[in-house]
Amino acid sequence: MKRLAEPLLRGDSFTAKSQPRRRRDPAQPNLPFDPIPDRVEPCLAPLKTAPPTGPDWAYEIKWDGYRLAIHIEPSGVRIITRGGHDWIHRFPTIAAAAKELGVATAILDGEAVVLNAQGRSDFGALQRSLGGRGGKRASTESVLSAFDLLYFDGHDLTKTELSARRHLLTDLLDGAVGAIQLSEEVQGDGAELLENARSLGLEGIIAKRRDSPYRSGRTGDWLKIKCVQSESFMVVGYEQSATARGGIGSLLLAARRGHDWIYVGAVGTGFKEKDAAYLTKTLDMLKTKTPVVPLKGKNYVFAQPTLIAEIEFRGWTDDGNLRHASYKGLREVQDNAAVYELD
């Protein structure tokens, strides 16, 4: 089992450590417990162009995978996606690792990732391990990068400050190297960490307020700063090609503006042959004569807005198209991917 990537700064850097947790004293009088919630809506990180500064912020690597909440309960383990679906059957190794943590009740917040040979998360590899979009395969290569603890040993921690939640999480996962590992806090200046992340080929960093409770939604308590932009866009068709593998020259992409679809350009790189064949077959089944964006072209095949693609890009052109776009994979409906919203 690969270890999660090492901290971005070495030498003077260090990872936050705490004393091993003490097991509950059986002779201790029973304390009142908080009921374990059926589900906690995730705390989300708005995208920022530069990291915040100051001692109030903690930093972590930004992982590129599927957001999951691991519910450990007396009745068993549940693995809840951002869309509220139980995917325990898709991540059996993570479920098995959760059972081995030796805790009666807990909710861990984290990201399921597949690591490449360099220890970096690879979204495409994760998708392939699950059998692609709509696939039914179980991913045995995936690792949960756990970065928060929302409930533990009968106590709701969502109103507790992040530094205390991280302290407990570090104790719980002390030395773990299997399918659940700690997303370690990295020490240093945010701008320097971002530059190091860029040089290592990572997606970016996450900044979190140390004293913040766990609040669902995009509150600004957590921020994401990316080295390379990556967002979800709707596939609204494709351009046919007689020479490209799978018959797809490029995918036609759209973003949201209110209730409307706005064309943001095409992507013609990043496909593997298997990806192109699946996309052609699926988009042909979704074919429509009425495009959802005002676009004309004799080689264009328009499709109903159903498939959501994760696209990496370097910025925007003056006419509102994606610059240097590259296809990374399709998002699952159960992943509750949010299509990019234009201002």
UniProtKB/TrEMBL annotation:
Under the heading PROSITE patterns, the entry gives: DNA_LIGASE_A3 (PS50160)
> Could you name the domain of life of the organism this protein comes from?
Bacteria
Please report the stretch or stretches of sequence annotated as the ATP-dependent DNA ligase family profile domain.
135-226
**Would you tell me the protein name for this molecule?**
DNA ligase (ATP)
Renumbered residue ranges of the record's region Disordered: 1-38
User: What top-tier enzyme class does this entry carry?
Assistant: ligase
EC number of the protein: 6.5.1.1
Instruction: Show the catalytic activity.
Output: ATP + (deoxyribonucleotide)n-3'-hydroxyl + 5'-phospho-(deoxyribonucleotide)m = (deoxyribonucleotide)n+m + AMP + diphosphate
Q: Is Nuclease one of the keywords?
A: no
Q: What Pfam families does this protein map onto?
A: DNA_ligase_A_C, DNA_ligase_A_M
Q: Which family does it belong to?
A: Belongs to the ATP-dependent DNA ligase family.
UniProt-listed GO biological process terms: DNA recombination; DNA repair
User: Which SUPFAM superfamilies does this one have?
Assistant: DNA ligase/mRNA capping enzyme, catalytic domain (SSF56091), Nucleic acid-binding proteins (SSF50249)
Q: Which UniProt keywords are present, listed alphabetically?
A: Ligase
**Keyword check for Transmembrane:** no
Q: Which InterPro entries match?
A: ATP-dep_DNA_ligase, DNA_ligase_ATP-dep_C, DNA_ligase_ATP-dep_cent, LigD_ligase_dom, NA-bd_OB-fold
The record lists the organism as Rhizobium lusitanum
By its UniProt entry, which CDD domains does this protein fall under? Adenylation_DNA_ligase_LigD_LigC (cd07906), OBF_DNA_ligase_LigD (cd07971)
Residue ranges crossing the lipid bilayer per the database entry: none
GO MF entry, a single one = DNA ligase (ATP) activity
